[in-house]
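How a chain folds remains the central question behind the approach discussed here. In the encoding step, the backbone of a single protein was reduced to a row of integers, each denoting a local shape. We regard such an encoding as a compact summary of how the chain folds. The sequence in question and its structure tokens are set out directly beneath this paragraph:

___
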Amino acid sequence: MKRRCLVLTILLCLVAAPALADTTPLPEVPEKGMVTMLDLGAHKCVPCKMMAPIITELQEEYKGKAAIIFIDVWQHRDEAKKYGIRAIPTQIFYDSTGKEVSRHVGFMDKKSIVAVLKKLGVE
């Protein structure tokens, strides 16, 4: 009986987990007056997991120069619709006036991200 309850509990968690929404407030995108890179993905998506350390590095390296933002669209489902994405990860780049200037779908390596940021005037 205990085993059956445990199995049912695990199944319930697996089924319910994707539907649980994160209530953490999201940052303003694009960040006012700053070049912004928005990475829309999910913590459990394989290419997104591959990008996670890159995003963390970029957030540190570009602190005060550019906003590097990650939003988990599995936790914040409305964001996928808001930004019109169909696949994850998707990276959206905004210039300092807040205009979208570039969009990429799929894994994006650090070198490619840095190249877009440089093109937008961020050193």
Summary: DSSP finds four helices and four strands in the chain. The helical segments are 2-16, 46-61, 77-82, 110-119.
